Amino acid sequence: MFQKPKGTVDILPEETAIWHKIEEVVRECTKNAGFREIRIPTFELSGVYKRGVGDTTDIVQKEMFTLNDREGTEFCLRPEGTAGVVRSVIENGLFNEPMPLKLYYLGPFFRYEKPQAGRSREFYQFGIEMFGAETASADAEVIALGDRVIKKLGLRASLNINSIGCPDCRPKYHDALRDYFKSHENELCGTCKERLEKNPLRILDCKSPICSAIADNAPKTIDHLCDDCNTHFETLKSTLDSLEIEYSINPRIVRGLDYYRKTVFEFISDDIGAQSTVCGGGRYDGLVQQLDGPELCGIGFGMGLTRIVLAMKSKAEKGELELPKNPSPVLYIAPMGDRGVVYAMKTVTALRERGIYAECDVVKRSLKAQMKYADKIGAKYVLVVGDNELDEGKAMLKNMADRDDSRQVELDKVAADTSILSF
RNA sequence: GUGGGAUUAGCUAAGUUGGUUAUAGCGCCAGGUUGUGGCCCUGGAGGCCAUCGGUUCAACUCCGAUAUCUCACCCCA
User: A13-165+245-317, superfamily in CATH?
Assistant: First the structure.
């Protein structure tokens, strides 16, 4: 017997109803905000990610699924969405469209990781990208969309924002940070000692209690912003205030992808385990040029839909949310005898054409077994059709929710007049 | 990549200090007189007890390895 690959999941019919709901909310929210869907390959030339996401990131260094074609060209299964979208924007000249260019995507992504709650090797992500708008209003619009999707799904997540500066002010901040941590070098954990030279920003993220305590008093990125970045951040805050979107400023938010500039943010859920970032993103003003495109700023986020599903299930367990279910048939027709089967098939087909979910027996079950089955699948009404009914042209339409409630209907009207399927 | 926990039927679990045909509930299928669901009763199907190796007269039970799941670190959505 075959097993699915490690770290992948089978999403079974019971759960796909939840996914349909999520996709419905995503499509509605993006449509109302003018984001249009883009569908791009699930794999790209490796360089797209190596150059886009950054050579030194964990994602590129140890989490990519790579494959080679017969000519030896190296590809990667997409580990994230932004780099591929940027590649497509450049390759298709979408930067010539009216600005801002607003896009969204939805689909599977792949990272070679050790699986745990909220982290798998194949996971689904919804993301948006907005190009050509460098104002803080654009940041707020992107954040507001993430906020709306989360709220429309009945979830709560706290929004954390930060600014990590731009190529002008970030080096100065790095120096200040390095100076500070150097004075505590002996106390830092092993990994953080290494981080000191390579990427001191990451020490802020360390979960070790000692490093974390030291980091508490570290210089904050928002105290070292240049005038431009500072104004941008202040404007973002006041815009979020006026939109009544709650947030907290978290100087520890440090994203692991090299392309981020200025605004970074995360929506964090407390309904799931340690992998609690349900949506994360930020501004990436240098990325398009980094991938050989024109000068074009951008901002976006990725939303981990697998984690959204986890959060919804967790909420449902606490009784705070009702999970979407697959639909039940309005009518189940229980035929008896060959003439009944013909009637049942014709009527069910006609009802389906009219957009009504109807079922009938196709396994030759006894009447009793059919009733049990109709009950199990949650049919609202049942119509028993045998020779007697066919001869008279009439049958009893039974309301499954109420034992004493049934009405006589004319058989040839069941498919024609759907109003009889509600009483 | 580093740790901890787990693996017995489709699902949730029991299985005595190693000892004959490996259990239960739920679910599935079929019945409980001629044409009616939920409750109840009866029967049936369904397991190489994760895999491989070792100890033993004898292993679901003890030991080792592998795989997978799971939780955390790391990292991220």
Answer: Bira Bifunctional Protein; Domain 2 (3.30.930.10)
